[in-house]
Amino acid sequence: MVKRVAIIGAGVSGLTSIKGCLEEGLEPSCFERSDDIGGLWKFTVSVETTGHGMTKVYKSVVTNITKEMSCYSDFPFPENFPNYMKHTLVMEYLHSYAKHFDLLKYIHLKTTVCSVTKRQDFTTTGQWDVVTDMEGKRDTAVFDAVMICTGHYLNPHLPLESFPGESTITEIPRLL
């Protein structure tokens, strides 16, 4: 029986996790809450927060790592891409990667993972219940493994407690 793997997030790590599962003979199902792959590399015009603490790139973002150091080992960036790329080229690359390795059919877009819990028989099966919501429709599925690929930029960390008096500042002083 083929082991089923839930992958949460279709960004850089989620895509390569799908591919890795397929190479190992596993059955991946990737859940992405937005309407596209790419994770934080997907630029959106909206100035509002995304509502889930999701961090996104801004319009002028350019990578600070060369393309040779940031590509997948089995899928280099195209030769004509500059060494340091705008986020649009990174997204183009991620779409090319997903298409090249036929990963899109394993991705459920606009699907939020609501909960991941151990099944009652977890000690013997090692299985998980994964509850998802796709546009108001709830579903529960059983998986043998779960990979969390949401990245460490999902929620901003603001260590405001390290700045005594921060909450009383009403105006930022101008520096000369």
From TrEMBL:
It is found in: Microsome membrane. Keywords: Endoplasmic reticulum, FAD, Flavoprotein, Membrane, Microsome, Monooxygenase, NADP, Oxidoreductase, Transmembrane, Transmembrane helix. Its cofactor is FAD. It holds the Pfam family FMO-like. Its main location: membrane. One of its GO terms (molecular function) is flavin adenine dinucleotide binding. InterPro entries: FAD/NAD-bd_sf, Flavin_mOase, Flavin_mOase-like, FMO-like. It comes from the Eukaryota. Its EC number is 1.-.-.-. It is an enzyme of class 1 (oxidoreductase). PANTHER family: DIMETHYLANILINE MONOOXYGENASE. Belongs to the FMO family. This is Flavin-containing monooxygenase.
